[in-house]
Write a structure and sequence with these properties.
By secondary structure, the chain is mostly helical. The protein is built from 20 helices and no strands.
């Protein structure tokens, strides 16, 4: 949706220079397309929600056959019926977020999930004492409704005018529909990967699936914070440059995003590998989660971490293809990589158990990144790859040195603090991370990585404006 809508906005701005009527007509077309997509999404998901509510027992039998004849069956049906309408709110919220991002507005869409999280926490504190788990379901429903609601006032601020229209004959609306089909297939392929991992892990010792799930959850933290911080604003920028036909700007923006990922994620990869056990111990080791579970989860995290940089780069290349309105190529490459992933799973699980499944995921992700990057290189005529490799090399060298220092510091801190558990372990990990940040920052400065000075200048500019 974003590349199509952004293209309309760019055309309207360019037409509006010296031709106000043409610019107004272009904006009107953009509002009409945006309204049609919103209305179409609302209608489609309303039908899905109604079907889901009516046939909830059938759905539960399919996805959780072990619940049949159990109290959990009726509970799951009730919760599903309460939460099914969230599909409408999330889907509409995705479109409104796309519209706001097309105007280079990112704060409100980022506040939406925060609003939902706060609402869920409030529901746990206020509703669950009397309603039990039903209170959590209601809190989730209300939270996702508020996530959509906080964005709506800002649409009019940027001039968006909602229309109760459903112009499915509009070529651009059809284009959105055509572009989304490969994306849906690509998402399905990703789910197949997860399903295969779980099926194979179910034949391993008890706790293997949980170890993979928890390790993946920890790895998603930097993905959700740092990767999205770059990916969210860079996609509308790429779409705008593509709409203007600015090939040089596209390559420059892509290269800058790649360098930032290298700079930020290389030390996180090494840090998660070196501190895998302390991380998992602090976050999960309590109650039924034993030290043995910590080790198993840390093994999975160690191998998953190798896929952190490739995963971010792959998503960046995928967004570049989307900006060029090519949603087919990433799906084709993804389908091939799924096959390779399955083969790697079957080979590595014999020697590394659940750690082999995590390593297979990282290898398949890296291969996906390389193939997408190569195809993108050919399509765009190449870019300043030497500079990107130079930044990546410097980042990796600095991260490896940092990793050695962090390993030694963590051992020393554990001897003094970690053995006391609780706050002692927190001091241990926080101290190791703090030393790692200082060492890595110093090494990157010493290696004269240009992006670091640009990042510092940006922070100074923002801070200066705040205190001015």
């Amino acid at each position: 949706f974003i590349p199509t809508f952004t293209k309309l906005l760019v055309e309207a701005r360019e037409a509006g220079v010296g031709a106000e009527a043409a610019g107004a007509a272009g904006r009107d077309r953009a509002w009409r397309v945006g309204s049609t997509v919103l209305n179409a999404v609302f209608l489609v998901f309303t039908v899905i929600v109604i079907i889901g509510i009516l046939f909830a027992p059938v759905v539960v039998r399919l996805i959780a056959p072990g619940f049949v004849g159990d109290d959990r069956f009726d509970l799951t049906v009730d919760l599903m019926r309460i939460m099914f309408p969230t599909l409408i709110f999330v889907s509409l919220g995705g479109i409104t977020m796309g519209i706001l991002n097309s105007f280079d507005h990112f704060l409100t869409p980022a506040l939406g999930p925060l609003t939902a999280s706060v609402t869920v926490i409030a529901a746990i504190l206020i509703l669950t004492p009397s309603l039990g788990i039903y209170g959590l379901a209601v809190g989730t429903l209300v939270g996702l409704l508020l996530q959509l609601a906080v964005q709506l006032p800002f649409l009019s601020k940027f001039g968006f005018r909602y229309r109760p229209v459903l112009d499915l004959k509009d070529p651009l609306v059809r284009q959105v529909g055509i572009l989304i089909v490969p994306v849906l297939i690509g998402v399905g392929i990703g789910q197949v990967n997860i399903l295969i991992d779980r099926i194979l892990a179910s034949g391993l010792p008890t706790g293997s699936i949980t170890a993979l799930d928890f390790a993946n959850l920890v790895m998603q933290l930097p993905m959700g914070i740092f990767v999205q911080a770059i990916a969210v604003p860079i996609f509308p920028a790429l779409s705008t440059l593509a709409a203007r036909g600015d090939a040089l700007g596209l390559k420059r923006t892509l290269g800058r995003g790649t360098n930032y990922y290298s700079l930020l994620l290389a030390p996180m990869t090494v840090g998660m590998m070196v501190l895998a056990v302390p991380f998992i111990r602090i976050i999960f080791e309590r109650g039924a989660f034993t030290p043995e579970n910590t080790v198993a989860t840390a093994v999975a995290l160690f191998w998953y971490a190798l896929g952190l940089v490739p995963s971010a780069m792959r998503d960046l290349y995928t967004r570049m293809f989307y900006a060029l309105q090519d949603t087919r190529t990433p799906v084709k490459v993804g389908a091939v990589c799924v096959t390779i992933h399955i083969v790697l799973n079957l080979i590595l699980i014999r020697y590394m158990a659940h750690g082999g499944l995590a390593l297979a995921t990282s290898i398949a992700t890296a291969l996906n990144m390389v193939v997408l990057g190569w195809l993108l290189w050919r399509r765009t005529g190449g870019w300043a790859l030497a500079n990107e490799l130079r930044v990546l090399t410097k980042s990796v060298v600095a991260a490896l040195v940092m990793g050695l220092v962090v390993y030694r510091v963590d051992n020393l801190l554990y001897a003094f603090w970690g053995q006391y558990g609780g706050w002692g372990e927190l001091v241990e990990v926080a101290g190791a991370i703090g030393v790692g940040v200082v060492v890595y920052g110093f090494l990157i400065w010493l290696l004269r990585v240009e992006e670091l000075s640009m990042l510092v200048a940006l922070v100074r500019e923002k801070t200066g404006r705040f205190f001015r």
